[in-house]
Amino acid sequence: MFIYYYMSIQEKFDKSIENIKQIDKLENEELLKLYGLYKQATTGDCNISCPMFWDLKGRAKWDAWNNNKGLSKEKSMRLYYKYVKEILKEKGINTDNELDDKE
User: Fold this and answer.
1) Model pTM score
2) For residue 95, what pLDDT band results from cuts at 50, 70 and 90?
């Protein structure tokens, strides 16, 4: 069994990305939060201009990313990882305790 406890935050983040794909349907709020944290962790602060008001989907994604402005890469990864853990637990999905840790 792979011991998640000793993984780096990058490895936990990568594993969380794999694990969240087990869920067929996520709520829009969950998707937006995951998107914002993912973009912050992988790209940093939002570096694109705000979409026009008629682009509702683009604006929602931009807001989700921009709401994490100033978070470090590591902090964003950690928040993403913890949020995935929360979602999986809520949905009753077992990941063989891969996402368990003693943070």
Assistant:
1) 0.84
2) low
Class of the CATH-defined domain 24-44+52-94: mainly alpha
Residues 16 and 10: their CA atoms lie apart, in Å, by 10
As a three-state string, the secondary structure of 65-95 is HHCCCCCCHHHHHHHHHHHHHHHHHHHCCCC
Residue 62 predicted with pLDDT over 70: yes
88-93: long-range contacts, CB 8 A cutoff, minimum separation 24: 88/19, 88/20, 88/22, 88/23, 91/23, 93/19, 93/22, 93/23
Domain ranges (residues) in the chain: 24-44+52-94
Listed residue (50, 75, 54) closest to 63, CA to CA:
50
Contact (Cβ atoms closer than 8 angstroms) between residue 31 and residue 45: no
21/87 Cα distance (integer angstroms) = 11
